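Continuing the batch. This is chain 6 of the set; chains 1 through 5 are on the previous pages. Same settings as before, nothing changed between runs. Recording input and output for traceability.
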Amino acid sequence: MVSPDLPHFLAVSAVLFSLGLVGFIARRNLIIMFLSVELMVQGVALNFVAFARFRGNLDGQAFVLFLLTIAACEAALALALILAMYRTRSSLDVSLWQDLREEDLEQVTDDEPLPLAPATAPLPQLPLAGIAPAKPEEPNRV
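Output for chain 6:
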């Protein structure tokens, strides 16, 4: 069985990075954009590990450890920000966040904004713990 060489690792790394780039450019959902950025970071990390293995030193692998630590912190902060932004606007569409731009930049309007999600009925609530509520009496069947 042939062990993969540096070009194989670089090809997989380039595919990961390209998929992340296409996902970031093509989508307007904040969570999909965030996951696309994470995919690009993983492609770069694989690139570092491949070159560290090819050169025979551990510098690239040590850098990847720091990169993964920073990516984990960034994931926690980004998801908290996305959740806070969703609570204020009830949508994850990026085009609704034009007011976060710098003041000297003009706003970009989309030709086709995403439709808003339909209002859903509230979820059913579970009864409090304790004695089960009484069931309505069933009519006698003859």
